[in-house]
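Morning, I've got a small favour to ask if you have a moment. I've been staring at a protein lately and its backbone has me curious. You're getting the sequence in one-letter code plus the fold written as tokens. I've dropped the whole record in just underneath, so have a look:
=====
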Amino acid sequence: MGRSQQQAFLAMLLAHPGRPLTAARLAEGIFDEDNPPARPRSVLATHAYRLRRTLRNHRADHLLVTVDGGYRLDVPAESLDSVAFDRLVARAEDLRTTDRPRARDLLTRALALHEGEPLAGLPGGHAVELRRHLAERRADALEAKLALDVDLGDNPSCLVELDQAVFAHPFRERFRALLMLEYHLADRPAEARAVYADARRDYRTEGLDCRELDALHARIRRADPTLGTATRPVGRSAVAHDGPVPDRGTDSGRSPAPEQLPAPLSDFTGRQSAVAELTTVLTRPDPGAVVISAVNGIGGAGKTSLAVHVAHALREHFPDGRLHLDLRGTRADPLDPAEALGLLLTALGVADREIPADPAERAALYRTTVAGRRLLVLLDNAASAEQTAPLLPGARTCAVLVTSRVWLTGLPGAHHLHLDAMEPADALDLLATVTGRDRAEAEPEAATAIVTACGLLPLAVRVAGSRLAADPAQSLAGLASALADERTRLAELTHHHTAVEPVLALSHARLNPAQARALRLLALPDTPVLALGPAAALLDRAPERTRELLETLVDLNLLNSPAADRYGLHDLLRVFARRRSADEDTPAEVSAAYARLLGFCLATARNAEATAHHVEHTRRSLITAETAAPGRTFGTVEEATAWLRDQTDLHRAVILRACQDPALPLAQAADLADKMGSILFGRDHATTVGELAARVAEAAPARGERDAEALARSVRGSMLWHAGSYAAAGEELRRCLPLCAGAALRRLRANVLQLLGANARVLCDFEAATGPLEEAASLFHQLDDETAEGLALGELGYIHARCGHLARARAAGERCAELTGGEVSISSSVGSYYLARILHLCGDLARALERAEAALARFRSFGMPAFQAATGGLIARIHLTAGRTAAAVRAAEEALPQARRVGGMLEGTVLRTLGQALADLGHRSRAGACLRQALEHFRRLNLDAEAAGTEQLLGVLIECPSR
């Protein structure tokens, strides 16, 4: 299975069958923490590729699944030797008192599954921990099997196997005790004494005691009858695998079952799926090993409340008691594991004088004391896996429920549950429960606003509800209004001795300076998620170092990572971090961070545009706006367009910040808006980009940034055009044109002229469209910008065709395709669409259809709904012209959903084509409905010529009922 690290990758996936593991968790588990690879995700991808290649040889490559940047191995748990081992051991445990020979056979089968050291030689923390866990489980099973050998007295190799076990585990007392007992039962007292003498010497050399062996030796010396004789009249070995050698007495001699759980919340609300998941895990009927469930989440998420609620509900399942211990993980001095063991032992009835001082001995005594008991141990507020590990019982009859603000990934075999914010309905239910249901139901909108301002965090919702309950005169609307102000929100979320901010501050206090700075700066942009590249720019760090830093914050649950290399903050934590930034970061530092972010966003958007249109970004730069950052690069058009769509919220945030912050250049903000608008043509995107461009245009005159104003107005005019506001678009573009003076702005002027021509074309003012388009094509030719020149000629050719100048139209269309063609890009696809429009009007329907269908396939892969709708509508018109009426209906109906998504003229055009085709098929009722909808669209957009043509079609439909 490849090299050791490749095997460690597979082993970690097999240890979690059917469960997705994030790239960060895999990297933590298999790479050396002192010498990790420079690009761990790339290394993981290589391991996955090689593993799939190996699996493919066995027709099993489908088992390895990529999930949100991580991986999952879809193999049934029962196919794993480790699971089979645990099940055999569990069945043996059940039969140990009723059918000892059968129990021993099962243990022998389980031990046969082990071949050598588990995961021998595999690197990484996960392999180390799993190796230790599996070795411990094997030793437990071997101990149980040898104890049964001693009980039954029929294994001639028993002494040899015991001697081998002692050699392999010299400080595991029970193996020596079994060896002593076997010699005693075989009437070989001298050898029994020799085993005891060797043990005392070895243990004392290491500074250890051997209390179990001391007790057994004393019982042998006094000829304790319960130890049996050489004839073995004992029903069970005095050295059982799940109990100490000294008599523990009967159950009635034990101390009372400990019941240490805090009182549950009487108004515990929601979390049904989490409660069900924990209940299922903790009550698993045949666990095979101690069950560990670790709940993690941000402070205030309700981890302790959930754990206490579940623990109380499981009382009947754990009749021997429920322990609770606060590990003080959020304090500067978390509870020491040795002290925690002392507290647990005391709770279990062990006298202080019997509790050893040595931590390892305490842990051993703890495991011995809980062996065989059905106990639930709730370890609350854990600081780390290292703190928690010594507190885990060894008996499978026990279960452990741990809560922590961090991911306890170091706990082998643990089930992890991440507790996030509540569901909105549950948060509203909690608010109503605390406040009073009548009050909450009387002001539903205010109640929703309150839980939203609380970020759906249970602690915050409970505090808000408690404030309202304490003041019956206060309205929910009044509190909602107070919480709406981010600057005072945390101060409002306080009631008596309970507040949200101190809870968040406890987590913040554990951060080192780099982590604290990262949290403050990542909170600045008003966007729910930041990708790695923008985050690195904000922090002024290399991407790999940024990822390492941010993953530590994810482990602390101060950041969430919804996907690989994507990071976000909880809403209230963002408010908290912004307040810290206001206190600790100077305005200059904040501006510098935003400047780095704006520079990165612009450089990356330029790269995306260059890839999408397959041209050098310098040929598409309409004004001068220098950037220091190189930005992210893209390999495909699809990747580039997807990035710009995904980053819309971030781009909006940085552009708005540039409009407010004089330290940030508006030229960069305007250029970023232009790059967004060059690719994002959908109605929603057009509205967003248009509004941003308007903000830049408003701010530019006061700063004397004329070029930025010019570009912003051209972008706004373009977006108004895409949104169907043609009159407003023309007005904005005409206002922009005088600003485009001088040689430096010739490209921008050509762009504005082309937009003016397209706007006139939509209004069917072909004479007004011709001049601007001819001037634009000429300017682009002078600038040696073939792609832009081709697109201008494509628009001009369509005008010629509409005016009946078909030869000129075809020549312009062919030249358009030639100048924009070549590599697959948005520009070449638009060029194909333009040529198809012209060929349709020229009567070359076969070539027109070929070009249109090729363009449509590309627009679909690029995710461009506006051009998908336009091209689909064109295909329908081509079929209609060719007399393929049914095909026209199919094409129009396929295009209509995208056209409705885009709206405006496109929707009207597709509806009109569909109406015409349906009328030709005789479906007069549906045809009339489509034509009337189209007419409504055209009238609303003030497209008089299109409306008149549609009215004429409706008139024909009414006059010719037999059609």
In short: The longest strand covers residues 376-382. Residues 599 and 627 are 5 Å apart (CA to CA). DSSP finds 45 helices and twelve strands in the chain.
